[in-house]
Write a structure and sequence with these properties.
Largest sheet: 6 strands, antiparallel, barrel
Shape: globular
CATH superfamily: predicted glycosyltransferase like domains
Helix content: 10-25%
Oligomer: single chain
CATH class: Mainly Beta
Distance between the termini: 42 Å
Number of domains: 1
């Protein structure tokens, strides 16, 4: 099936959260970070360590557990990561509840 478009997973709905977590990096070991938004495909993390595009981290998430992610973009202490696997919808919704996301009408 040549030339079929590949969906851009970064367009998945992102949910704003304010969730403190631990990320594990090869270079810095365990580091504190704050997730500012999340989708079933990835998240945005605010951090104090220097990361480069393509770096891999392990993010600790409620319900979903430890999940590997790779850095897609970074700017001014904020970085966008894509998860190595998609979080199942039921686990994702339970995770959002634990992260404190509240849907506003």
């Amino acid at each position: 099936m040549p030339n079929e478009p590949v969906p851009d997973m970064r367009r998945a709905t992102r949910f704003p959260v304010d969730f403190k977590t631990i990320c594990e990096t090869r270079k810095d070991g365990e580091v504190s970070a704050n997730i500012s938004n999340v989708s079933a495909h990835g998240c945005q993390i605010v951090h104090d360590v220097t990361l480069n595009k393509g770096d891999r981290v392990i993010v600790r998430l409620p319900v979903a557990g430890r999940i590997e992610a790779f850095l897609v973009w970074t700017h001014g202490g904020r970085s966008g990561f894509e998860f190595e696997r998609v979080i199942r919808e039921s686990d994702f919704m339970a995770m959002l509840d634990k992260m404190g996301h509240s849907q506003r009408s």
